[in-house]
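Quick one, tokens below. Sequence please?
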């Protein structure tokens, strides 16, 4: 019994018990995603960013990885797209790689459900470990971790904006490692913190860098200053942290930086960047989210009250400062501060300042930390806090009542709403506040019990309000858009594109292996957008190898042949579509893509015989194409394409796939220049005769980024090994 008692009282056992509790509550919160009974099962919505933006590229990558290819290029969206450079595809994020490798062709939305569950648990577990180090006690750490994990921010859009959830999971671990590194003056721990920040970058949410990176650096400076470190030592630690973080994440940020500068994000105006930001009425979500405010901010009544108590006693002032900075920043264009941030943002990743309401991440994490400080005060002071706690609960209940009244007089008179909503919201507020206040009064002389009761009520509050917010109870209906595209008759060629005019919101190409002229990745190339802007539907289909059109409309043009009807959808074959690869008679050099777009937009432009090339390929007007001249695609993968060409004169081979730096061409095994053609496509010169043309995607940003990431991680591991080897004689 003594051994069992010692085990139960040991700090490691109690920490493990808290982590097990976090795992159990995470399962309780999400169990319907994995319920065996169909009547109990919940589903991730098909019409969401998770299903339409994050799922398709990850499923495509998993499928190609199972086939033995590490896909850098996705041929199924935007007439070809550098998927590895899109941060939301998370090509280099280790957890995403593991799920892709394990699931393979069976990668589904259920796979993403497991991903969501894992990162919810990691967010709670790492927060608990950080707060435990911060408070030196498990109960306040548990309170802060559960309030953050199940608070309004993580349970609102991060599960459907998966990279947001993945970023949030690693942030508290980075803070924990920074804290330990400062306390123990160990560079290895600071380097490990840098790797944790690197994982945040690899998870692929550039907007979250604006919160995670600066807060981690500020926390380093704050803790080091309190520990008596000199400015020079603090600066060196910060430099190490940043260097390791950037080095670890180089595989992603180097390609992303290149793609960003070539994408439409690089030309956003102030009006476009100013999208988002909380209107001031939405900030009432801290107190009554069901009515006026957004649920994004809700962390529970007792979390707000405990945080206010901590600030009043001057505890956790660092986190109070972070909260205020994120609060003012999240207002966006509604405050003049946004203009200053916009000017600074233009120096870095252009366009990533949009939707600054994501700073709710910093606000909710800060409130979770401050609520832990509040629980710590309750544990130490107990009944001496009775008056401020009861007064605070009464004030919050009065504020909730006022907000409910304001909602009743400010809502639009013709708005459709549940008449029981204001009464229900106010009753819930009263239940939580009065229940917590009564528990505190009953156990005011037993502080540990009072603190435990408040933690239970605070967690019950956030888990109840935020439960089930990102899933749906009904399975997807049959006959959805994906099934409509899959039912399309085959085209005449082995390689062709399909467009679905009624599906502007789904990346069906990546999921079905169908080539598409559109897609949903957020970083569309400028030149490709320019090409689409100058083409009407007929010329788009002609130039971009579209053979099949799925639509609810009707075509009278004989170029569109009706091949199938499935009401209300019709399937038309575009019978005059050009092949994916073809030879042209005449080549016209132009100065840049803008000049090519101007020429290509002319109504009399001869698409069948003329190509516009940026640069000087050494060709001009040529003889008419002979009947034996041809270009045939004989092999294709994600990163390469092989074309057999027969030419009777020097010709330009045009491939109706997107041009991007990193594509290389070989003619019969010899390197050949690749030219931007027809604004955004590819062209290569072939001599007379029969030839094999191979185009491979070998982007320099990929090799440089991966080399730097591997070198950084290897350097940290070698440094750790050196320290271990040095300390080995001492341990002996």
């Amino acid at each position: 019994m003594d051994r069992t008692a010692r085990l139960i009282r040991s700090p490691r056992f109690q920490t493990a018990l808290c982590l097990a509790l976090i795992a159990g509550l995470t399962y309780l919160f999400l169990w319907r995603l994995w319920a065996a009974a169909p009547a109990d099962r919940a589903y991730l919505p098909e019409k969401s960013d998770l299903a339409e933006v994050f799922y398709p590229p990850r499923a495509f990558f998993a499928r190609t990885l199972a086939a033995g290819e590490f896909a850098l290029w996705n041929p199924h969206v935007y007439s070809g797209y550098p998927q590895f450079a899109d941060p939301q595809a998370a090509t280099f994020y280790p957890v995403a790689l593991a799920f892709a490798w394990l699931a393979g062709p069976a990668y589904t939305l259920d796979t993403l459900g497991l991903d969501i569950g894992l990162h919810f648990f990691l967010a709670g577990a790492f927060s608990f470990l950080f707060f435990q180090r911060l408070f030196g006690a498990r109960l306040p750490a548990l309170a802060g971790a559960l309030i953050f994990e199940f608070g309004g921010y993580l349970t609102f859009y991060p599960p459907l904006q998966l990279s947001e959830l993945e970023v949030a999971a690693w942030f508290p671990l980075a803070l924990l490692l920074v804290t330990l590194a400062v306390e123990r003056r160990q560079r290895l721990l600071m380097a490990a913190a840098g790797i944790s920040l690197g994982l945040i970058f690899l998870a692929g949410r550039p907007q979250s860098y604006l919160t995670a990176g600066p807060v981690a650096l500020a926390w380093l400076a704050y803790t080091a200053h309190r520990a008596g470190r000199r400015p020079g030592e603090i600066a060196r630690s910060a430099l190490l942290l940043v260097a390791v973080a950037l080095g670890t994440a180089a595989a992603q940020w180097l390609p992303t930086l290149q793609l960003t500068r070539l994408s439409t994000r690089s030309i956003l105006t102030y009006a476009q960047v100013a999208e988002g930001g909380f209107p001031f009425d939405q900030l009432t979500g801290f107190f009554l989210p069901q009515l006026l405010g957004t649920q994004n901010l809700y962390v529970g009544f007792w979390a707000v009250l405990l945080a206010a108590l901590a600030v009043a006693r001057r505890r956790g002032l660092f986190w109070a400062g972070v909260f205020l900075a994120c609060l003012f920043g999240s207002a966006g264009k509604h405050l003049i501060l946004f203009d200053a941030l916009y000017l600074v943002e233009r120096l870095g990743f252009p366009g990533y300042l949009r939707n600054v309401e994501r700073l709710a991440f910093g606000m909710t994490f800060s409130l979770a930390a401050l609520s832990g400080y509040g629980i710590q005060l309750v544990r130490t002071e107990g009944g001496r806090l009775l008056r401020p706690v009861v007064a605070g609960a009464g004030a919050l209940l009065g504020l909730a009542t006022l907000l409910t009244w304001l909602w009743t007089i400010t809502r639009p008179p013709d708005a459709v709403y549940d008449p029981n909503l204001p009464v229900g919201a106010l009753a819930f507020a009263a239940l939580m506040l009065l229940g917590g206040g009564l528990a505190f009064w009953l156990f005011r002389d037993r502080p540990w019990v009072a603190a435990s009761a408040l933690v239970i009520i605070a967690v019950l509050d956030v888990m109840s309000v935020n439960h089930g917010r990102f899933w749906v109870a009904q399975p997807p209906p049959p006959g959805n858009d994906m099934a409509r595209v899959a039912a399309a008759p085959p085209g005449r060629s082995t390689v062709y594109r399909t467009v679905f005019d009624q599906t502007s919101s789904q990346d069906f190409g990546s999921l079905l292996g169908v080539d598409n002229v559109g897609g949903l990745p957020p970083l569309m190339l400028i030149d490709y957008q320019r090409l689409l802007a100058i083409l009407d539907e007929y010329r788009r289909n002609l130039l971009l190898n579209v053979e099949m059109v799925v639509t609810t409309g009707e075509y009278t043009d004989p170029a569109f042949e009706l091949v199938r009807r499935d009401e209300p959808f019709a399937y038309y074959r575009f019978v005059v579509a050009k092949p994916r690869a073809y030879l042209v008679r005449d080549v016209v050099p132009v100065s840049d893509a803008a000049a090519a777009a101007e020429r290509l937009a002319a109504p009399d432009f001869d698409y069948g015989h003329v190509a516009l090339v940026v640069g000087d390929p050494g060709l001009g007007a040529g003889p008419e194409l002979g009947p034996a001249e041809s270009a045939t695609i004989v092999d294709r993968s994600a990163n390469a394409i092989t074309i057999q060409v027969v030419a009777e004169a020097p010709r330009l081979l045009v491939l109706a796939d997107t041009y991007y730096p990193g594509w290389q061409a070989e003619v019969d095994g010899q390197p050949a220049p690749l030219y931007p053609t027809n604004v955004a496509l590819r062209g290569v010169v072939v001599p007379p005769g029969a030839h094999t043309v191979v185009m491979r995607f070998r982007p320099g940003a990929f090799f440089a980024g991966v080399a730097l990431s591997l070198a950084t991680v290897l350097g940290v591991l070698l440094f750790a090994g050196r320290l271990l080897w040095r300390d080995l004689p001492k341990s002996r």
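The two ends are 33 Å apart (CA to CA). The mean pLDDT is 88.
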